[in-house]
Amino acid sequence: DQQVKQNSPSLSVQEGRISILNCDYTNSMFDYFLWYKKYPAEGPTFLISISSIKDKNEDGRFTVFLNKSAKHLSLHIVPSQPGDSAVYFCAARANNAGNMLTFGGGTRLMVKP
Amino acid sequence: NAGVTQTPKFRVLKTGQSMTLLCAQDMNHEYMYWYRQDPGMGLRLIHYSVGEGTTAKGEVPDGYNVSRLKKQNFLLGLESAAPSQTSVYFCASSLVGPKRNEQFFGPGTRLTVL
What we know:
- The structure holds two protein chains of two kinds.
- By secondary structure, chain A is mainly beta.
- Chain A has no helices and eleven strands.
- In chain A, strands 2, 4, 5, 9, 10 and 11 form a six-stranded mixed beta sheet that branches. A five-stranded antiparallel beta sheet of chain A has the order 1-3-8-7-6, with no helix packed on it.
- Chain B is built from no helices and eleven strands.
- Chain B has strands spanning 4-7, 10-13, 19-25, 31-38, 42-51, 54-57, 65-67, 73-78, 87-94, 104-105, 109-113.
- Chain B starts with a strand and ends with a strand.
- Classes of the chains: A mainly beta, B mainly beta.
- Chain A binds chain B through residues 2, 4, 6, 9, 32, 34, 36, 41-46, 49, 89, 91, 93, 98-106, and chain B through 4, 31, 33, 40-45, 48, 50, 56, 58-59, 90, 92, 94, 100-108.
């Protein structure tokens, strides 16, 4: 049973518009959440994170929102650029799981020029 | 500064063969990790290490062994490869403390077991 789910395998957005990537989780012990970005034939790279004590974290064009009651987080990219086309993974860490991250299945974002 | 490197990039094995994947990092990171990525499954942690000489099991450790004899290297071994181990393997490393979850990944090793 996947504890972190990204229900949209793919998303297509026009350049300049907003991209919203969603992630749902089931484990109430998760207290830290991250988004990673992955280009083909490369390893994932860290993008942005949020602690469970916050509901929003912003870094340039990227904002992560956390809704603990709904066990839902989202990544907003504004404005979207063609170079943002990649697979995005959300990940979560439980406060009783040491260094283990649980990843979602990923969402492929395509930003069209 | 090469970051995290993995050797080899590609490998094809026959069922029952053994092999070792090598991960090296030059960032002086304490923590190192081995993941596998399968379609639709995201990344799943196989084994990890919180320091030289220490290892621990992750989510999917069966069929794999690891060793961390030097701080900068983390080896993943398959003693008797099975087709279910066909996957892309990623190594990662991180600092200790608050930044430990911001992991730096290598480029991956694509392994096919026939």
